[in-house]
Specification:
8 helices; Rossmann fold; alpha/beta
Length: 184
């Protein structure tokens, strides 16, 4: 067994938050990471940095490197887990292949893994969130409501913990921490 931060013994934990833009993933991820003492890995931050660096344009646009941000996130997360940190990963994660890749990261690091689908069950609240968003990152353009509705998002084919952020993220944080505690 390894000894992680704060003297805790045992495998590190990777919590993967998935869901449509505007569902509350980043707000939930920040609160959860703070509560767990974990590192927050955000795909939007990585993709915005790749875009603003010019590397995406030089490659021919996102169509030429559609999974670049995810690949960077997988590598960074693997290193963080190996260094003894718990990680909360925050991404739309819309495809079975990306979900499997996160599980492979946890497996390769010998870490626990929990998939969490973040939803906002109230369509009007979700829409207001999306339409009221502005980017907090240079190089990131937030999607429109129409783009969110049209986004490809494959149904889950495995067990996933679902949390609803309709009324905020506090209940979701408690549910995830409770699930992790019960599972340890």
């Amino acid at each position: 067994m390894t000894e992680g931060p704060k003297g805790r013994r045992g495998a590190q934990t990777l919590v993967v938050l998935s869901g449509l833009p505007g569902s509350g993933k980043t707000t939930l991820a920040r609160d959860l990471a703070n509560r767990m003492g974990a590192v927050h890995v955000r795909i939007d931050t990585i993709e915005a940095a790749l875009a603003s660096s010019g590397i995406v344009a030089a490659a021919g646009g996102w169509g030429a490197a559609p999974d670049a941000g995810y690949r960077v996130a997988y590598a960074v997360t693997r290193d963080l887990l190996a260094a003894g940190h718990d990680v909360v990963a925050d991404s739309v994660n819309p495809l079975v292949v990306t979900r499997r890749a996160w599980a492979d990261v946890a497996d390769s690091a010998g870490s626990r893994h929990l998939d969490v689908e973040v939803v906002c069950s109230d369509r009007d609240i979700h829409r207001r969130r999306v339409e009221g968003r502005t980017s907090d990152l240079d190089g990131m353009t937030v999607p429109t409501w129409e783009q969110v509705e049209a986004r490809r998002y494959e149904p889950w084919d495995a067990n996933v913990l679902r949390v609803d952020t309709r009324d905020g993220v506090a209940d979701g944080v408690r549910a995830i921490v409770g699930h992790l505690t019960a599972d340890s």
